[in-house]
Structure formats: structure tokens, C-alpha cells
Amino acid sequence: MPSAFQLQCHLVLIFLAASKGETRYLEVRDAGDDEPFLLLSEDLKRELSAGHIYRRSLRCIDMLSIEGQFTFTADQPQLHCAAFFIGEPEELITIDYDFVNIDCQGGDFLKVFDGWILKGEKFPSSLDHPLTTSQRYVDFCESGNIQRSIRSSQNVAMIFFRIHQPGNGFTVTVKKSTNLFPCNVISQTPSGRFTMVIPHQHRNCSFSIIYPVVIKISDLILGHLNGLFLKKPSAGCAGVGDFVELLGGAGLDPSKMFPLADLCHSFHGSAQMKIGCDNTVLRMVSSGKHINRVTFEYHQLDLQETETRKENSIEEFCFPSI
After folding, report:
1. Is the pLDDT of residue 93 over 60?
2. Is 235 helix (H, G, I), strand (E, B) or coil?
């Protein structure tokens, strides 16, 4: 039975990654009561490939991974609404206000958040984001026409809104742009391959996979300077400015997860770990003195893998519910 966190992610991520559009474009195929499998229909694929701007209405709770123009019009007081946006790992999200008709003085609000928040937990965490938490919010009622275009720092962003008066609402256009050095990513899918590069930047980057996974690191370069690898301490990563850690937990915020493994030595080869957590994060800490790079691939644990414990399994730290 899925955990509470996994059920929330059905609303926020699994359904999002599959839906990518309006209900009329969805094909639903039975895959068990807990997890319907939704696919984009050929109609939407043809429409988008023809260069059309995708338009549809927003729901009070909505999930989108596609560019387009989206309109919300309240048919009744809507007091607790949010729209989650996600791109590919190498994409940034820009949200433009096209039209806004809300009553700020009457208690309405429309806020963009740079990242995601779920049950009070943030991604990226406050430790890994270049802005303070307050700076990550852009409130339309405070900024008005001053800032009508907001670009995210990573591949996820969201809108919070509250509208009391039926008929009021807003229209936004969502666009995506290329991020040459992605830092802080939520994966749309339970499997994939990714290379994270931090070039001479003092920052921390997290790659989040909201599934129990097998993760395999195939290439790790830390402290690369003038073609030479700097010598690392022989025991652990304590005091090392550049390292990779694997985290696991049942929430969204990497800073609140269990530390499961540290890697502070460069290597070429393969290091694999099975992690039975609801959320798995690979996090790279960089001092800014070097070019650091890690390449890894991952796939979702199947039922047989979760039941078969191996020496490098760390499921017991995560209290898996599957």
C-alpha cells in the first residue's frame, strides 16, 4: 500500500508526468486501482507538433509539464489552490502574467514560488537554493506590473492562489528555456540517466527521484584541477569540500532526509545501491574550487527487488511501505 507521501506524489508528480494536458487528451488504461496509467493521446501530439499554442483551463489543484497558456476562472470561492509546473532536467520554467483580475484588498492572492512545497517541505531545500525562502516567493499583489515574468532556478516551480469572487481569475503563459548546467532537479520519471556538472561554483545541487530506486553511479570526478585529481583523505568525507551524498526519506526536502552514503573519491566504474525510500536524492556539494561531475542512472525498484535484500541494500533506513 502506498505511503501518504507517495499518494501525494500521485497528485503532484506521477499524474503530472503522465497527464501533460487536458482530460480530453488522456487515454486511461487499467493498471490497478491505486495507480491508473495515463498516456498522452495522439491528438495532442499532433496538435503540438503543428506548432499550435496549447491552451486550457487550470484546475484549483493542477499539475503541468507542458508549455502553453493557462487560465483560471473561479466558479466559486477557491481558497486553497496550487498549480505545480515541471520541465525536463535541463529546462527552466518561465511564468508570464498575461491577465490578472483578483481582489488583493479583499484577501485574494497570486504567488509564484521558485521550487515546490509539499506539506511544508521545500525543494530545493533552503541549503541548496541561491535565494532565501522569502525571495523565492513573488507575490502579484505586492509586485503588480513591476514583475510580470518570473523564471525558476530549476526545472520545477509552482503557483499558489486564493480567489474569493466567482468570475475573477488570471491567465498565465508557461515557457521553458535551456539550462546549460542544471542544478536541483526533480525527475519526472522513475528511470533515467543524468550527468550533473558543477563548474567552479560554490553551490550544492540535488537530483530528486520520488520513487524507490536502484541507482548506479558510473563516473565521478571530484576536485579536478589542471588535469590532476587532488588527493583525498583516506577515511570518510569529513572536512572535504567536494563530495557526493545519497539521501533517502519520506518527504520532499533533502535537508530532512537520512544520509545513506558519502562519496568523496573520484572513480570510473560502477557503484550501485538499492534504496527503498519514497524519495531518493543524489546531492553534490561543491566548494567552487574545481569542476565536479557525476554520471548516474536509475530505475524504479520492482516488487521482487524490494523483497530481495542484498548487502548494499539500505531499505531498512527508510521504513518502506511497499
Report:
1. yes
2. coil
59 and 162: one domain? yes
- 119, 122, 126, 128: CA torsion to nearest 10: 150
Q: Report the C-alpha gap between 300 and 320 in whole angstroms.
A: 13
Do 298 and 198 share a structural domain?
yes
Q: Do the bridges between strand 137-139 and strand 109-113 make them parallel or antiparallel, or are there none, so unpaired?
A: antiparallel
Angle at 147 between CA 141 and CA 152, to 5 degrees: 105
Q: CB of 21 within 8 A of CB of 40?
A: yes
- Extended beta strands in 47-191, E state: 55-57, 61-64, 68-73, 78-86, 91-101, 109-113, 116-118, 121-123, 137-139, 149-151, 156-163, 169-178, 185-186
Domain shared by 157 and 214, yes or no: no
Quick one: 198 and 163 in the same domain? no
Residue 123 has pLDDT above 70, yes or no: yes
Burial of 320 (0-12, 13-18, 19+ CB in 10 A): middle
Asked whether residue 110 falls in the same domain as residue 161, the answer is: yes
- Cα–Cα nearest to 175, from 55, 95, 82: 95
End-to-end CA, the chain? 6
**Is residue 296 a contact partner of residue 306, using CB atoms and an 8 Å limit?**
no
Pairing of strands 192-199, 291-300: antiparallel
Rg of the chain (C-alpha set):
21
- The stretch 20-36 carries a mean pLDDT of 33
Which CATH number covers residue 252?
Answer: 2.60.120.290
Sign of the alpha-carbon torsion through 316, 281, 119, 81 = negative
pTM of the model: 0.80
Segments forming the whole domain that contains residue 113 = 42-178
Q: Are residues 152 and 217 in the same domain?
A: no
Statement to judge: residues 212 and 135 lie in one domain: no
* Cell 501525494 found at: 8
> Does residue 32 fall inside a structural domain?
no
